[in-house]
Structure to design on (563 residues):
C-alpha cells in the first residue's frame, strides 16, 4: 500500500536499520512547520494520537504527507526519539532501569524553556505518556527555583505592587528560604 | 477567571501559547513548598494555587503517580523527651532496591519548629503520645510544662505540617463517670456529647482510627467476669460496637494498633519478648484474626503506616525503624542521621502525605475524644 518515500525526503530522521530493510516497513510521512519532512515507522507513528486519527479516521492513504504546522523540526526529532524507545520497551519485561536512564539522557541537553515548548507540542500531538513525563520533568526543574525565574520562564507578568507582594510573601516566608538545601 | 486569562505566552524564540491545563499539570506535580512560594508569582497564580479544585488535583497526583508520592510521603515522629517533632522522608524507600549494599539506610530529618513557635516559650514543652496523622494532617497534644492551679495545661492542635497551618482545638473539662464520647466540630470549635450510656471501662489511652471508626481496648463493666474486648466508635453514625479479640492467653497483656489496613493486637508477655502478633484481616470478623510471626523478637511493636510491595516499615521497641519482609522474614534497619535523642527512643509517630489542604477544608472532619474521669466507676 505505501511506497517508499526515501527518494523524496530531503531530510529523513529515523533511528533504525539500513535503507534496504526500511523499504519493507510501512512508513508515514509528516512535514513540520519549518518544512522538514520525517519518515516514521508505522508503529511509532501510531503512538502519536493526532497522526493516528488523521490517517485512520478517514482512511487516508499513507502516501499523503501530513502537515504539522504547530511543530518544529527539532521537536519532532525528540518526539520520535521518545516514542521509538517507548515502543521498544513495551516488549521488555523489566525495562524500569533502562527507561529511567533513557529519560535522564533525554532531558539532559534541553533547556527548561525548550522542555516547556516540547511539553506544549506533546500536548498538541496527543502523546499522553510523553506529556506526563515532560510535565514531571519540568516540575523537577523548577521546584527549587525562585519566583523571578518562574515568571521569566512562563512569561508571566508580576501584577502585584510591592506592598501586595510582601503581604503574600509574609503568608509563608519559610517557603522562600533554603532553596538550595532542598533534598527532595 | 477565564481560560484565556491564564494562557501564557512563552517568550524567546518561540511565541507559543501554553494552555492552562498544561500549567495545571505541571504545578500539580510540585511539592508543597514551591507551590506556597509561587503564590507570589502573580495574582492569577495565587488564586489558582488556592483554588479547592486545584488543591484536590494536587492531592490526587500523589496517589496517581509513584514519583510524586515518594516526594510527599513523610514519617513524623517525636523523640522520647517528646519536645521535638521530626519529619522523615520515607518516599525514597519506595524506589530503593534493598538487597544490595544496605543494612542501614541513612535518612535525615527536620524539626518542625513552627509548632512550638506558636505557643509561648516557657521551657520545654512535652509533646505527648497523641501524635496522630490523618491524611495530610497531624493531630497532637502539647503539654505546657508549667503546672497551673488546674493541673497541667494540655494544648491540642491540628496542623498541616506542609503548609504550616496550625489550629488549636479547645478542650472541655467535665467531670463524669464511665465513658463519654464527645465529638468536636472544627467549624464551630465546639464539643458535643453523644447520647447514650456506655458501660465500658477503657484500658488503652488514645483511640486507634481505622475505617472511619475509632477503637479502644476495654472491658465491659456490667459483666461478672469482664473480659477484654475492642470497642469501636463509628464516626459517621456515632454508634458503638464491640469487636472480639483473638484467642490470646489472659496473662499476656495486649496492645491495640493498626497493621496496614487491619486492626492489630501485639502481645506483651510481661518482661519476655514476643515473636507473634495478630491481625484482623476482615474487619469485625472474629474468625479472620490471623497470627503473624516476626523473626526479630520484640517487646513493643508498631506498624509505621508505610509499606511497599515487599516490605513494611515497623518500629521495634520504640527505638528502631525496620523494613521487614513478611514473606521471608528478612529485614534491614534504617538509621536516622542527626537525631539528638538521648537514648534513641521514639515517642509517637505516624505517616502522612504532604498536601495543600487547609484547616478550612477540615470542617467536615470530626475528631472524637474519649473522656475518662472514671475514678468512680460502678461495677
Amino acid at each position: 500500500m505505501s511506497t517508499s518515500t526515501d527518494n523524496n525526503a530531503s531530510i529523513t530522521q529515523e533511528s533504525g536499520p539500513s535503507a534496504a530493510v526500511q523499504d519493507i516497513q510501512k512508513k508515514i510521512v509528516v512535514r513540520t512547520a519549518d518544512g522538514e519532512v520525517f519518515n516514521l515507522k508505522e508503529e511509532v507513528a501510531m503512538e502519536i494520537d493526532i497522526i493516528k486519527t488523521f490517517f485512520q479516521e478517514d482512511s487516508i492513504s499513507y502516501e499523503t504527507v501530513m502537515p504539522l504546522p504547530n511543530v518544529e523540526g527539532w521537536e519532532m526529532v525528540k518526539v520520535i526519539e521518545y516514542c521509538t524507545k517507548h515502543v521498544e520497551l513495551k516488549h521488555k519485561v523489566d525495562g524500569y532501569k533502562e527507561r529511567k536512564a533513557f529519560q535522564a539522557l533525554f532531558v539532559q541537553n534541553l533547556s527548561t524553556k525548550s522542555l516547556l515548548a516540547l511539553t506544549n507540542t506533546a500536548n498538541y500531538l496527543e502523546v499522553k505518556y510523553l506529556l506526563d513525563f515532560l510535565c514531571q520533568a519540568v516540575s523537577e526543574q523548577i521546584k527549587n527555583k525562585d519566583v523571578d525565574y518562574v515568571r521569566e520562564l512562563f512569561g508571566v507578568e508580576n501584577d502585584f505592587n510591592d506592598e501586595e507582594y510582601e503581604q503574600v510573601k509574609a503568608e509563608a516566608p519559610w517557603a522562600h528560604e533554603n532553596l538550595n538545601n532542598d533534598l527532595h | 477567571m477565564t481560560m484565556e486569562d491564564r494562557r501564557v505566552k512563552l517568550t524567546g524564540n518561540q511565541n507559543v501559547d501554553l494552555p492552562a491545563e498544561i500549567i495545571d499539570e505541571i504545578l500539580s506535580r510540585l511539592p508543597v513548598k514551591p507551590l506556597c512560594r509561587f503564590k507570589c508569582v502573580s495574582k492569577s497564580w495565587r488564586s489558582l494555587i488556592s483554588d479547592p479544585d486545584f488543591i484536590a488535583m494536587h492531592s490526587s497526583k500523589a496517589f496517581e503517580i509513584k514519583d510524586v508520592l515518594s516526594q510527599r510521603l513523610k514519617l513524623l515522629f517525636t523523640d522520647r523527651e517528646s519536645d521535638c517533632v521530626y519529619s522523615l522522608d520515607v518516599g525514597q524507600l519506595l524506589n530503593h532496591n534493598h538487597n544490595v549494599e544496605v543494612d542501614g539506610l541513612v535518612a535525615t530529618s527536620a524539626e518542625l519548629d513552627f509548632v512550638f513557635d506558636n505557643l509561648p516559650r516557657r521551657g520545654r514543652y512535652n509533646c505527648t503520645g497523641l501524635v496522630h496523622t490523618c491524611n495530610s494532617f497531624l493531630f497532637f497534644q502539647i503539654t505546657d510544662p508549667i503546672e497551673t492551679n488546674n493541673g497541667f495545661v494540655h494544648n491540642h492542635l491540628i496542623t498541616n505540617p506542609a503548609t504550616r497551618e496550625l489550629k488549636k482545638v479547645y478542650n472541655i473539662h467535665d467531670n463524669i463517670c464511665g465513658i463519654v464520647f464527645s465529638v468536636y466540630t472544627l467549624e464551630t470549635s465546639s464539643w458535643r456529647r453523644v447520647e447514650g450510656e456506655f458501660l465500658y471501662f477503657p484500658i488503652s489511652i488514645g483511640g486507634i482510627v481505622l475505617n472511619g471508626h475509632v477503637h479502644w481496648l476495654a472491658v465491659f463493666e456490667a459483666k461478672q467476669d469482664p473480659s477484654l474486648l475492642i470497642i469501636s466508635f463509628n464516626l459517621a453514625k456515632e454508634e458503638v460496637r464491640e469487636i472480639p479479640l483473638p484467642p490470646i492467653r489472659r496473662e499476656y497483656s495486649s496492645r491495640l494498633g493498626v497493621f496496614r489496613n487491619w486492626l492489630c493486637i501485639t502481645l506483651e508477655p510481661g518482661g519476655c519478648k514476643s515473636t507473634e502478633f495478630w491481625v484482623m484481616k476482615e474487619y469485625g470478623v472474629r474468625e479472620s484474626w490471623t497470627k503473624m510471626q516476626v523473626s526479630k523478637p520484640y517487646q513493643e511493636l508498631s506498624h509505621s503506616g508505610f509499606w511497599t510491595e515487599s516490605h513494611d516499615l515497623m518500629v521495634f521497641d520504640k527505638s528502631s525503624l525496620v523494613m521487614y519482609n513478611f514473606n521471608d522474614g528478612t529485614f534491614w534497619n534504617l538509621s536516622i542521621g542527626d537525631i539528638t535523642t538521648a537514648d534513641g527512643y521514639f515517642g509517637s509517630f505516624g505517616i502522612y502525605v504532604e498536601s495543600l489542604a487547609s484547616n478550612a477544608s477540615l470542617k467536615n472532619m470530626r475528631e472524637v475524644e474519649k473522656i475518662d474521669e472514671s475514678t468512680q466507676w460502678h461495677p
